[in-house]
Amino acid sequence: MNQATVVGAGVMGKGIAYAFAISGYQVYVNDIKEEVLNKAKNDIESLLENSCNKGFITEEVYQKALENLYYETDLIKAAKDSDVIVEAVLEKIDLKITIFQQLDEICKPEAILATNTSTMSPTEIGAQTSRPHKVVAMHFFNPVHKMKLIEVIRGLDTSDETVNEVKEISEQLNKEMVEVNEFPGFVTSRMNCLIGNEAMNMFMEGVASAADIDKAMKLGLNHPMGPLELADLVGLDSRLRNMEYLHQTLGEKYRPSPILSKYVKAGRLGKKSGKGFYNYF
Predict the structure, then answer these.
(1) How large is the average pLDDT for residues 137-144?
(2) CB neighbours of 133 closer than 8 A, spacing ≥ 6?
(3) Boundaries of each 3-hydroxyacyl-CoA dehydrogenase NAD binding domain copy (predicted)?
(4) Least C-beta-crowded within 10 Å: which of 99, 119, 123, 276?
């Protein structure tokens, strides 16, 4: 495998494209908005330059990655010849299904179609294509260039061959893979959403400040990042969509914290909007 396509040029899409590019893949980054692609190009090139300057990648890898990155609004051009396609759009099942139906028509039969979803069903997505055996979830973590894990979720019809190919891809990306049988929220999102939701409830109840809740988790439980910091980084709108899906599929204990819903309604989406549980101005 030597060509990859990333559909969606947001935070996760940019990180995934970077990971493939420094691993020697020819990478097409696709988004329907030209301005989003232009920003992605600037951000990825900046990250590559910083990584080279700090010695994380060699000058040769840096230059090769720059040469191997292409930015394309036309999904057909971006995906038709790729060996693996990773969808990294909003956590909306209808949107993902629409994209996978398009990819099913566009991509060569042997191509792997992967979703970067953190909660949603690769079985449901794959069932809307003619190749459910080639559909899988590859859940990368933010920031992709620092996080070593890929959570791989096989759908009901995902083949062993596809999972083995994804394992090889993960190794090429210098990532560690865990294999998960499909269930809403998988492993990490179920745990992380519960912890984050409880932190939001404690903040809302006045138990402690956001900074002290996060500090307690980092210093007391050895978490690398506090749950409220992490929610701001992920995006509070994304976290709300995840919580709503888990509440719908797994029940009452995943009911979104009222303050999460309130913040999203107010446009406090976290780091990307400049304000969430913290201010980023």
Answers:
(1) 91
(2) 126, 157, 158, 159, 161, 162
(3) 4-182
(4) 123
